[in-house]
Specification:
By secondary structure, the protein is of the alpha+beta class. The protein is built from 3 helices and 3 strands.
Length: 70
């Protein structure tokens, strides 16, 4: 294992609140293979923030990317 600290994993409630969706929606996404990657630890489901960010970035659509002022 690397020397990097582990990420604090999000539970279903935390992710649902962050994304403003229901826990049922997260469960449907998992069943359909449409949601962010997740970890199953026993009966618990956890999400790594980096996986959630990657998933969100893969779903960007429309609009222009604003150029950062230098």
């Amino acid at each position: 294992m690397s020397d990097k600290p582990l990420q604090t994993l999000l539970d279903e409630r935390e992710l649902a609140e962050t994304l403003h969706v229901s826990i049922g929606t997260l469960r449907t996404w998992r069943t359909d293979g449409k949601g962010p990657r997740f970890h199953r630890i026993g009966q618990m489901i956890r999400y790594a923030p980096s996986d959630v960010k990657t998933w969100l970035l893969s779903r960007q659509a429309g609009g222009d990317i604003a150029e950062v002022a230098r």
